Amino acid sequence: MEPPPTPQHPVCGETRPVSARKDLQGRQNIIMTEWGPWDHQSPLIRRIETTASSHVYDMHRLPTEPRITLTGPNLIWQSVPGKNREVPCCEVISQEPGVHPYTLNVVAGDYRRSIKGTLVDASWKVTFFNWPKETDPREQLEDWRKLAQGESAVSLETGLPAFRFGMGGPSSLKLSPELTKAKIGPDHFGMIAEAKLPLPKGRWKLSALSDDGVRVTVNGKALLDDWSWHTPKRHEAIYEASSDATIEIMVEYFEIDGYAVIEFSLKPES
Q1: Closest Cα to residue 34, out of 26, 43, 48, 46?
Q2: Does residue 86 sit in the same domain as residue 100?
């Protein structure tokens, strides 16, 4: 195959590809945003870590030392060291269990950014297990659920059930020594995650990205339900809390084969 012809017209404008700058060469310097790769020139704030009780943001190329304010109940923020000492990091921390919406305001010279987030501070019991083909959850649901109580199932405590397995399985994530040792592979595995959440009065959006089947129930009622074999798909539903109350929430998920992901989130509807 012949190489493409050389363009006959000059390229307008100026380009500064990251790979052409020696100090930025290497895959470790490719930082993705929702709009594509970061240009390493404009300011960038991104969340780099999520735990059961905190969110951590790092702040790149700010013109001056940032002034940070946080609005939201039962929350504080603090500066924390980052992997790159030249990049300031900010951690938003929950002071008590619950669902805490917040706004993080960052001002640095003429640069201003308001970041809205929701910190879900709850301990989830997550159980992973393999299932044989004769116990297909689409046909043998109760038998499939019983496998979560079996000797080969592995349970652990974690934050929101949000796992990108890719072409691996639960054991590949190394979430605990027991799970790694269990060697739960990439095909025919299940997950059941349960938690009790103190939820303020209001309308709340539940979202689940899954490949394959997912079902989310609140106080025993299914609000999200796509119990099928499918490619990555996002589902959303609204739960209306008529008063402040603690809800019982369960996320059930199964994987058949191929790429696998389950990411559950909860935030105010607005």
Answers
A1: 46
A2: yes
The answer to whether position 235 is within a domain reads yes
* Same domain, residue pair 85 and 143: no
E strands along the chain, which residues?
Answer: 32-33, 36-37, 44-50, 54-60, 67-71, 75-80, 89-94, 98-108, 111-121, 124-130, 154-158, 162-166, 189-199, 202-211, 214-218, 221-226, 233-241, 245-255, 260-268
Q: Give whole-number Cα distances, 85 to 29, 79, 116, in Å.
A: 15, 12, 25
Is the CB of residue 148 less than 8 Å from the CB of residue 251?
A: no
> Which residues are registered as beta bridge partners of 143?
none
Same domain, 199 and 131: yes
CATH code for the domain of 126: 2.60.120.380
Inter-residue contact 210 to 162 (CB < 8 Å):
no
Do residues 169 and 187 touch, judged by C-beta distance below 8 A?
Answer: yes
Q: Find where tokens 């990411």 sit.
A: 263
The encoded tokens of residue 186 equal: 């990439």
Q: Taking the mean position of all CA atoms in its chain, how far away is CA 261? A: 10
Q: pTM of the entire structure?
A: 0.78
Closest to 128 in 3D by CA, of 260, 267, 269: 260
Q: How far apart are CA 113 and CA 84, in angstroms?
A: 21
pLDDT in tens, 171-225: 999 999 999 999 999 999 999 999 999 999 999 999 999 999 999 999 999 999 9
Cis peptide before 39 (omega within 30 of 0): no
Q: What is the pLDDT of residues 168-185, one digit of tens each?
A: 999 999 999 999 999 999
CA nearest neighbour of 267 among 126, 105, 100, 125: 100
HSE at residue 175, side-chain half, CA atoms within 13 A, is 24
CA distance 250 to 245: 16
Q: Check whether residue 143 and residue 163 sit in a common domain.
A: yes
